[in-house]
Amino acid sequence: MKTKNIQKLFLIALSALLFASCKKESENIFTMFTDVTVTYNNSDPRCVTDYKVVNDKDEVWIDFTINSASEDMYSYTVEKSSGTQTPERTIFTINDPTKRRSFSNILKLIMNRDGKTTYRIYALNQKGIFIGDGKKSVTIDVNPSYMIYANRNIYLPDSVGKSLPSFFSLNDASGFSYTSAASNSAKIDFGIYRKLATNSTPTAISYTYNLYSPSVATNPLTVYDISAWTPKRTTKFSAPITGQNTAFLTGAVSGSTIETLAKARTINLDATAGTTLANGLNDGSAVFFLTPEGKYGMMYINIVTSDYQKKPYINVSVKIQR
């Protein structure tokens, strides 16, 4: 019996010894990649070294030095993170062999996105594997340069009660009915209306939706007399442009990008002239505009629909320069 106990104790001790000999300490992820350091230098007033607040269209410099103590760097990545978008990564090659342990450069950026954007620079070895970022990054915060108004309803005119908000102000996204519009004409940029569309199938019944400025030469909606309104705003519009969801969400992200998108279109209309559902104000289309104050903007049509009382309206979102 004693022999069996001794054998058991021996086996337990042997197992513990084998386990201890096979155990390998792995490096803590928080202590890895310490051989690379990144310094953000303050060589110019335009430089960002940690956090910097600027305005749209300002030039910002990222003056950096990246050092690697034990491994050659063959390239580095500049990672740009804005909002909830997937980070953008651009890889740059280090061609000079004498700079593979210490490399410096200046990134000169023109800011064109409102809000915070974070930049991180990290080194890659000969195999393109991450070897460190110095656990540092810099953030540039661009002051608001445009206004956004989301999901505003503009109703089709009601010729009887004349109480539905079928006129719209682009400056503050407020709506006005015909009965309140005359006293607020200085704010109103357009009204909307619909008419039977031109269809390839004569039996098909659908409408085309259009907008018109109070300063239009010929009022397309004679049931609303706007001839006595004063003053009348002279906002100009582009024709509706289809497929503008991406441009509105991720392209028009500052006052300067809104202006660039708008200037790529012809903005000279007092009224849109769509003849079908597709080329009028329709789901996914957008109208670019220029206000009398010189502000560019973009109005995106989210949907053309009706409310629970069957009253038709369009739902829009607006971005306009401050």
Automatic annotation (TrEMBL):
Keywords: Signal. This is DUF4397 domain-containing protein. Residues 1-20 form the signal peptide. It comes from Pedobacter chinensis. It comes from the Bacteria.
